[in-house]
C-alpha cells in the first residue's frame, strides 16, 4: 500500500477525459493488471496499436513481453521486471518487434498506478519509437570517431612531412633551411590542430587556433590574448597560421620576446565588415629605430601570401615595439 | 651531448623514427629504435642501460606505449610522450604522468626534452 496524494486521485469525471486523451495522444500507452496471472495488458490505445501493428484483440490478455524478440537486451528486460516487483518507475530503451517482424527502439516508461486507498491497480506503460534518435546518436558517435581518426592521421602526416624535410636537409647539408621550413610546417600543423578534434564543418574558432599556434613561443605568460569568439573559414587558417608564425619568430629574434628583454605581446582578433582582423602589439622588447633596412625572407613570404589572399598587413615600427594589423577578407572574397 | 647516453625511440611511423634517430645522433647519443612494444621491451631487456625514452602513444595494431612506459617506470628510466592522438588517448595520457610533446614537433626539441630528463640520472651514475 502506498500513500497517494489527493492531486493524484482520479475523480469520476476524469475517467472520461482519460479515455478521450488516451484515444487521441500520439504516445502509445497501455495498462497491465498486476492482480491477474502473468500481468496481462488490459488496455492499449490507438497509438499503441499503430506502433506495434497488432489489433486490440491480439494485444489484450497478453503479457507485454510479446513485443520482445531475439535481439532484445536481457539486462534491460530484467530492469523492467525488477521495477515491477518493487513497484518502481523505470525508463528503459528496448529493442522491440512489430507484428510484421520489423524492429524498433522503444523508449519504455513504466510505473505503478494506485487507487485512492493506495492499492496497486495497474502498471502504466508509455512507449515511444526512438529508432531515429538512436540512429542519430549512432551517426554522431561515428562522426566523432572519424574526426578523431582523421585528426590523428593528419597530425601524423605533418610529422612525416617534417621528417622528410629534416632528413633531406641533413643529406644535402642544408639543415638550417630544413629547420626553417619545418618551423612553418609545425605552425601550420598547430593552426589546424584545435579544429580537427571537433567535427566542426568548414569553420574554425579563431581563439583556440591562435593560442595553439603561439603556444611554443609564449614563454612565461608574455602574451596576452584579447580576442573574442570569432570564427573564420577553414581556408583562411593557413594564412593566419603562417603570419602569426612570422610575427612570433620576429618577436623572438628582434622584438618583445628577444633575449634579455621582458617584453609583452598582445594579440587581438575580431570579425569586422567581412574581414578577420588580427592585431599584434609588442611592447617592452628590444628597442626599435624605425623599419628594418632589409625585409627578411620571413617578411617577404608573409607579404606575398597576404597579397595572394587579397588581404593587407600594416606594420608600424613604434619605439616601444612593432604594431601590426593583418586584415584577411573572409566574405565575398571569391570574385 | 651526453657521451654513452642511450635513448630509446618508439614510433610506428618509420620516417618520424628516422628523424628522431638523426636528431639523437646529432646529440651524440646512441639511438635504439623500435616500431612496436615487443621491440621496445627487447631493447630495455637487452641493453639494460637505456638512459631515457621517447614514446609514441598510439601504435600499430591497436597497441599503445603503455607496457613500455610501465616497464621504464619500474626501472626508474625517464621518458616523454610524443603523440598526435591527444583526444582518443586522453585516458592513457592521464594514466602516464609524463611530459607530453604534441606532434608535429621539431625532432631535436623532442630528443632534447628526453635527454634533459636523463641528465640528472646520468650525473648520478657518474658520481
UniProtKB/TrEMBL annotation, chain B:
KW Phosphoprotein (keyword) present? yes
Cite the entry's keywords alphabetically.
Phosphoprotein
State the name under which the record lists this protein: Response regulator
Q: Which residues carry this modification: 4-aspartylphosphate?
A: 56
Classification via PROSITE patterns: RESPONSE_REGULATORY
Give start and end of each Response regulatory domain: 6-127
Q: Which organism is it from?
A: Alteriqipengyuania abyssalis
Amino acid at each position: 500500500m502506498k500513500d497517494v496524494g489527493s492531486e493524484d486521485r482520479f475523480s469520476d469525471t476524469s475517467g472520461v477525459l482519460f479515455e478521450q486523451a488516451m484515444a487521441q495522444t500520439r504516445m502509445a500507452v497501455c495498462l497491465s493488471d498486476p492482480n491477474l496471472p502473468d500481468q496481462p495488458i488490459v488496455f492499449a490505445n490507438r497509438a499503441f496499436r499503430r506502433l506495434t501493428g497488432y489489433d486490440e484483440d491480439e494485444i489484450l490478455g497478453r503479457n507485454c513481453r510479446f513485443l520482445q524478440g531475439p535481439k532484445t537486451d536481457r539486462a534491460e528486460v530484467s530492469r523492467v521486471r525488477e521495477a515491477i516487483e518493487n513497484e518502481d518507475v523505470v525508463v528503459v530503451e528496448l529493442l522491440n518487434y512489430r507484428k510484421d517482424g520489423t524492429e524498433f527502439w522503444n523508449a519504455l516508461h513504466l510505473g505503478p498506478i494506485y487507487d485512492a486507498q493506495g492499492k496497486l491497480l495497474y502498471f502504466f506503460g508509455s512507449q515511444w519509437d526512438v529508432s531515429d534518435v538512436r540512429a542519430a546518436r549512432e551517426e554522431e558517435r561515428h562522426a566523432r570517431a572519424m574526426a578523431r581518426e582523421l585528426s590523428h592521421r593528419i597530425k601524423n602526416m605533418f610529422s612525416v612531412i617534417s621528417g622528410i624535410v629534416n632528413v633531406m636537409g641533413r643529406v644535402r647539408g642544408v639543415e638550417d633551411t630544413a629547420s626553417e621550413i619545418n618551423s612553418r610546417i609545425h605552425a601550420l600543423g598547430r593552426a589546424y590542430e584545435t579544429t580537427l578534434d571537433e567535427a566542426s564543418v568548414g569553420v574554425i574558432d579563431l581563439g583556440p587556433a591562435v593560442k595553439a599556434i603561439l603556444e611554443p613561443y609564449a614563454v612565461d605568460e608574455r602574451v596576452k590574448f584579447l580576442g573574442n569568439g570569432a570564427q573564420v573559414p577553414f581556408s583562411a587558417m593557413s594564412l593566419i597560421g603562417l603570419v602569426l608564425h612570422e610575427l612570433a619568430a620576429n618577436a623572438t629574434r628582434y622584438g618583445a620576446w628577444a633575449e634579455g628583454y621582458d617584453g609583452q605581446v598582445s594579440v587581438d582578433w575580431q570579425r569586422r565588415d567581412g574581414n578577420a582582423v588580427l592585431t599584434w602589439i609588442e611592447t617592452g622588447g628590444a628597442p626599435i629605430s624605425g623599419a628594418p633596412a632589409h625585409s627578411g625572407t620571413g617578411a617577404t613570404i608573409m607579404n606575398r601570401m597576404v597579397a595572394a589572399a587579397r588581404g593587407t598587413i600594416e606594420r608600424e615600427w613604434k619605439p616601444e615595439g612593432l604594431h601590426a594589423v593583418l586584415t584577411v577578407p573572409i566574405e565575398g572574397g571569391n570574385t | 651531448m651526453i657521451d654513452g647516453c642511450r635513448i630509446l625511440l618508439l614510433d610506428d611511423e618509420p620516417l618520424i623514427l628516422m628523424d628522431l634517430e638523426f636528431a639523437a645522433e646529432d646529440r651524440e647519443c646512441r639511438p635504439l629504435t623500435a616500431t612496436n612494444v615487443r621491440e621496445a621491451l627487447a631493447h630495455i631487456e637487452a641493453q639494460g642501460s637505456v638512459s631515457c625514452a621517447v614514446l609514441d602513444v598510439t601504435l600499430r595494431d591497436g597497441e599503445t606505449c603503455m607496457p613500455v612506459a610501465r616497464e621504464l617506470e619500474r626501472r626508474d628510466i625517464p621518458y616523454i610522450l610524443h603523440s598526435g592522438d591527444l583526444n582518443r588517448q586522453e585516458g592513457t595520457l592521464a594514466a602516464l604522468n609524463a611530459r607530453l610533446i604534441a606532434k608535429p614537433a621539431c625532432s631535436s626539441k623532442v630528443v632534447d626534452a628526453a635527454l634533459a630528463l636523463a641528465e640528472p640520472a646520468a650525473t648520478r651514475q657518474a658520481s
